[in-house]
Write a structure and sequence with these properties.
With 402 residues, the protein is an alpha/beta fold. 19% of the residues lie in helices and 27% in strands. The strands form six sheets. Strands 7, 8, 10, 11, 13, 14, 16, 17, 19, 21, 26, 29 and 31 form a 13-stranded parallel sheet that branches. A six-stranded mixed sheet has the order 2-1-3-5-4-6, with helices on both faces. A five-stranded parallel sheet has the order 9-12-15-18-20, with no helix packed on it.
Amino acid sequence: MKNLILFDDDEKWKGLLPLTYTKPICELRIGILTIREKWEHIFDATASHITQDHLAEKYPIELNEDNVLINSSFLPTEKLNLLIEDLSMNEAILYNDELVAARLDSKQFDKLIKDNEIDEITGYDISKDKEAIMQVSRPHHIFEYNGGEIKNDYITITEGRLSQPIDSNNRVLALENIFIEEGAKVNFAILNASKGPIYIGKDAEIMEGSIIRGPFAMCEHAVVKMGAKIYEDTTLGPYAKVGGEVSNSVFQGYCSKGHDGYLGNSVIGEWCNLGADTNSSNLKNNYDEVKVWSYTTGRFEKTGLTFHGLIMGDHSKCGINTMFNTGTVIGVNCNIYGDGFPRNFIPSFSWGGSSGYSTYNTDKAFKTAEIVMGRRGLKLTELDKKILQFIFLESAKYRTWE
């Protein structure tokens, strides 16, 4: 059996900050599954990682004599899957001089790691084959591609399986496009799957009065609160709790937007909490193209999008009635509160709002994270603390008040 290794391209990993500060690219959720889970299903294998130094201990690499390496920023497509499956030993696939995938023996792999070079390898350039490529290199790609990935993952997860029945007290359109896992609860809701599938994960719950349009996915133990309005192309990761009005947004997991307020065209990291009546703009008043902060260029860059909401890194929180401008980017472990609009880029470990910021020291941040994770029966490990400590030091250059 081939050994599957998912590797981070440094430029793409940086381009996906702050979402990737705490994890490799392949651990990001888009659609129903993470990128890693998608590739594992295709190859019927368990993947290991090549990632940033500060993440390597938590996400180690495993090596054997027959290794298939895949660039984590590329999503599976029917054509790319076939190309990778057909690779012979010491062959590679390139896209615009970027390594997409390779099949390497241990000798070639060692040389790649030590010298960043490979000997005696055949490369196939697929730069002209646009159908084979779907790449995630910026945070907004996650919500842009989410609807299509929900459809793809829905087929992967449900093929050959039967859904649990849905209670007759619900109102349903296109029942054949709805899949309910064991233990899920759905009562007195309106589900419209006529334009895309609706996936309801194991032990998830949709509370009374909720209105949902597909494509939509909620993973295990996720909750849609009473009276929520959820538009298409939205994903709730494991244990996410969501209420109010949400459109085309991805909650990575273990996060909460439990009350009224609008969120659209956004990506919310793990262990985040949006206070009651938090609202995020996803459209400028003049309908102009949205610019967002780029960690790659160190400035605000054009996205090519008219609709772009909030990007929030892991462990960040905001207080009640918080208002976010179009295209706001918030780092890891931030605590945002107060009236007025906070700035459009808030670096990691920031505490404050429109009236000013101070540094959220790690002792206080870790204490909060321990409480929040403990509520889910999980622990903030010493390794997690080391990763967050690295982020605290690395992001200091953005905290201009220090």
